[in-house]
Amino acid sequence: MTLVRLKVRGLRNIQALNLTPSPGLSVVFGENASGKSSLLEAIHLLSSGKSFRTHQLTQVVQRGASEMQLSADVLSESSGTATLGMEYETEGGRMRMKAAGRTVQKLSEMAPYLPAVTIHQESHRVFTQGPEFRRSFLNWGVFHVEPRFLPAWQRYRRALRQRNILLQRSLPKPEVWDRELVESGVSIDTYRRGYLQRFIPIFNELLPVLRIDGAICLEYRPGWGSDKDFSEQLSKGLEGDRRLGYTRIGPHRADIDFTVHGSLVRERLSRGQMKVLVYALYLAQARTLAEITGRTALIMMDDLAAELDGQHIDQLLGKISVLGFQSIITTSDPAFRRHVVDIPHKMFHVEHGVFIEVI
Ligand SMILES: Nc1ncnc2c1ncn2[C@@H]1O[C@H](COP(=O)(O)OP(=O)(O)OP(=O)(O)O)[C@@H](O)[C@H]1O
Ligand SMILES: [Mg+2]
Questions:
Q1: What is the predicted pLDDT for the residue at 257?
Q2: What predicted TM-score, i.e. pTM, was given to this entire model?
Q3: How much is the CA Rg of the chain, to the nearest whole Å?
C-alpha cells in the first residue's frame, strides 16, 4: 500500500494541507511546535480512527474550528487506488467516513485500506505499561493478516458483555454464554498463536540489524492457564466470577511477556535500549504483514533523531529502504539530511502548520 496523497483541514495547527509523500522515504523537518506530530496524527487517524496522543477527538480539531476533514488517496497492491475520507464535527461528536466511494459505519471497515504503524515518544509503553498496550499491538497484527479475527473478536466481546451483565447483577445462568465465549475465544487464541509463530522469527532476524544483543523472548499468555483448557477453566472459575461480578479469564486478558536473559525487558533494559527495541518490534510487524499478505504498511516515525542515536538511525533507515516500505519521518534536526544521502527521498519543511517540499 502506498499513501499517494493526503489532504488535511482543521487538524491542530494544520489549517489546510495537500501533501504528496514519496512512495519511499519522506523526511519532514521543522522546529518544535511546527506541526510534525500533527501530520502523523492525521495519517494515523485515517488508518485507525484514533489519535496516538489523545482519546478525545475534539482536542485534535483546530481551536476555533467546528470540524476537521481528512482524506487520503491510497494505492493498494491488490485493488488499485482508493480514496478514504473522514470528517469529524465537534458538535455532537459526529464522525463520517468514506472508503472507495462508499460510506462506512465502522472504523474496522476503514482500517484495511491504510495499514500504518506509528512509532512515537510513548511507544515503548508496549513494554513498560499495562497488558492492554501489548494486546493492542498483537490485535493490530492479527487483524490485518487474518480476516476471521474481527468477527471472532466481535462475537467474543458480545458474549463477554452479556455474561458480565448477568454476573454483575447476580442474575441466573451467566454460563449460558460460555459456549459462545469458548468457541470465539479459542478461535482468537488460535489466530494470535498463528500470527506470533510468523512474527517471532522475523522479529529475531531484525534484532542484530538494530544492534540489539541478547535474545529477546516473547512468551504469549492467552488469558488463562497456558496449558489448560479454556472451557474447563471458565466453568471452574464461575463461582469466583459470580463473587466478583465479572469474567476473570479469557482472550481479553491475554498478554505477552517480553524477556531478556530471563528478566522482563522493562526491568532489564535501559530506556534507550527499549526505544530501539520498539523500532524492531513495529518493523517486524510491518514485515510480517507483508510476508503473509503481500501488503505493505506505511511506517511513521515521530521525532526519530530524538529517539535513536545516529548509528541506529542509519541502520534502521537502510533496512526500511531495502525492505521497500513507504515511510515518513519527522525531525527537528535541520542536519538530518546526512542520514539519507544514499536513500531516495522527499524532504518537507514545516512551519506553523504549513508544509513545503524542499528540493
Ligand atoms: N487543537 C489545536 N488547535 C490548534 N493548535 C493546536 C491544537 N492542538 C495543538 N496545537 C498546536 O499545534 C502546534 C503543533 O503541534 P505538534 O505537536 O504537531 O508540533 P511538533 O512539530 O510535533 O513539535 P515537537 O517538535 O515539539 O514535537 C503546537 O503549537 C500546538 O500547541
Ligand atoms: Mg512532535
A1: 96
A2: 0.95
A3: 22
Integer Cα distance of 305 and 312 in angstroms: 10
User: Which residues' Cβ are closer than 6 Å to ligand 1?
Assistant: 12-13, 30, 32-38, 59, 61-63, 303, 332
Name the closest ligand to CA 65. 1
Q: Could you tell me which of 47, 65, 66, 2 has the C-alpha nearest to residue 140?
A: 47
What is the rounded distance in angstroms from the CA atom of residue 22 to the CA atom of residue 141?
Answer: 25
The whole-angstrom separation of Cα 150 and Cα 232 is: 25
Q: Would you list the domain boundaries of the chain?
A: 1-115+295-359, 122-294
Q: Which of 298, 176, 287, 153 lies closest to 238 in space, CA to CA?
A: 176
Atom of ligand 1 nearest to the CA of 38: 18
Distance 332 CA to ligand 2 centre (A): 9
What's the CATH class of domain 122-294? Answer: mainly alpha
Q: What is residue 84's predicted lDDT score, i.e. its pLDDT?
A: 96
User: Mean pLDDT for each consecutive 10-residue tract of the chain (359 residues)?
Assistant: 97 97 97 98 95 94 96 91 96 93 92 95 95 96 97 98 98 96 98 98 93 89 91 96 97 97 93 93 97 96 92 94 96 94 96 96
- Spatial separation of the C-alpha atoms in residues 187 and 281, rounded to whole Å: 24
- The neighbouring-strand residues paired with 6 are 19, 72
- Return d(Cα 195, Cα 141) in angstroms, integer: 7
Ligand 1: residue whose CA is nearest its atom 8: 12
* Grid coordinates given for 147: 480476516
- The set of cell numbers assigned to 220 is 504469549
Hunting for cell 501530520 — which residue is that?
Answer: 39
- Superfamily of domain 1-115+295-359 in the CATH hierarchy: P-loop containing nucleotide triphosphate hydrolases (3.40.50.300)
- By 3-state DSSP, what share of the chain in percent is helix, strand and coil, each rounded to 5? 45, 25, 30
**What's the pLDDT at 213?**
79
